[in-house]
Amino acid sequence: MTMSWQSKLAYGWGSLGNNILYGFVATYLALFYTDVLGIAAASASLLFLVVRVVDALFDPVMGMLVDRTSSRWGRFRPYLLFAPPVLALLTVVAFSVPRLDPSTTLALAYVTYLLWGIAFSAMDVPYWSMSAALTLDARERTSLVMVPRTLASVGFIGVNIVTLPLVAVQGWRDVAILYALIAVALTWITFARVRERADHVPSPRYQVGEMLRLFVRNRPLQLLLAAMLMTEIAFTVRSIIPAYYLRYNFDAEALVPLFVGVFAVTTITGSLLSPLAARLRGKRGAALAGLAVTTVTSVGSWLTGYQSLAPILGWIAVTGIGYGVTNITLLSMLADTVEYGHWRTGRRTEGLVFSSNIFKTKVASALGASLGLALLAAFGYVAGARQSSAALDGLHATMTIVPGVIGALAAVPLIWYRLDERRHAELVRELDVRSAGA
């Protein structure tokens, strides 16, 4: 049965709320640590790497819990009711860490960030797992995923635009409280108004060993996760650098909202174009085209230099279109691997697929944030000081060519990806035949 646009929009509100908090933490927690709490860039780099990798180990456990859940609200919705307030509270706590002696401050940052990551998994894994239980049509999934991912871009990049002006007036903790309240309200809309399909096939329970076996047998999932890992590392690097880049390379910190806003509008434009791109070129072709755009524009912006901000804004605008197309199509392809796994193993495991995705996202966030901060340290960045020419050149490279090269690597796994729309439709028909004969 075709989903109505009202249902797709109701599903998307949860992603908006989720990404208001994720965008706030992913973009500004590093700045809060280095420039407010006084944590050295190298120490912050190690913190992001360690915490995100440790936290990511919880995601497969969360996927197992989701696949085992059975309640009067279904398999996914209970988490959308109970997890958001916890995540909201921990967001406020993370931005309330006091500046004490360096060791104590660093320890508090480790603990609060780790707890935040675990709470994020408890909401994000079931939220995205639910998408595979809303429709089986591969093409409709592109339009379904487009809605929450577009709203995710609105939340993530919108937070980038308004946060620094709000912080200047209210301070970090009060801004965190504001975002937390909005996020909880939006996610509860999804809980109240979205239901999984009545004919949805539940997943039999499985243990850790079998979970690994199921993952190994799902090659399309492995290839997609590898491609998405590269794109998200590139995106994370590009997300945490603008506040530094505009402050020091252009002496234009006040233009961070404009810079991020341009990227926001074009990313959303690319997201909206993704269903059309997928129809014209297929999902895989659309993703590869988007990656080509992000790579070419990254090289172009690097060669342009940082003498003027206007051409950099032009390059980042086109980059956003490519990223929007790539992001939506890859995520839509991820939902298709649920049916592939069901066809190959006889088990339908949305929790496994989407917890693997969140695990990948956290690893990408860890590697991207750690890489970005490590490059700052390597180029000689000193918080609050006048930067050397080497540091300025390093900031420019980190903002442009570095994410471009990383993003280009995402195309490599897609060369071997063969689960196109035609093959997916065949698998769904075979599964229907098996179900009718059972």
TrEMBL record:
Cite the InterPro entries for this sequence. Answer: MFS_2 (IPR039672), MFS_trans_sf (IPR036259), Na/Gal_symport (IPR001927), Na/Gal_symport_CS (IPR018043)
Reading the lineage from the top rank, the first entry is Bacteria
Please give, as recorded in its UniProt entry, the membrane topology of this protein: Multi-pass membrane protein
Q: Name one Pfam family in it.
A: MFS_2
Transcription in keyword set: no
Is Cell division one of the keywords UniProt gives this record?
no
Q: Which organism is it from?
A: Actinoplanes flavus
Question: Where exactly are the transmembrane stretches of this chain?
Answer: 12-33, 39-58, 79-98, 110-129, 150-169, 175-194, 223-246, 258-278, 285-306, 312-334, 363-383, 395-417
This chain belongs to which protein, by name? MFS transporter
The principal location of this protein is: membrane
Q: Where in the cell is it found?
A: Cell membrane
Q: Keyword annotations for this protein?
A: Cell membrane, Membrane, Sugar transport, Symport, Transmembrane, Transmembrane helix, Transport
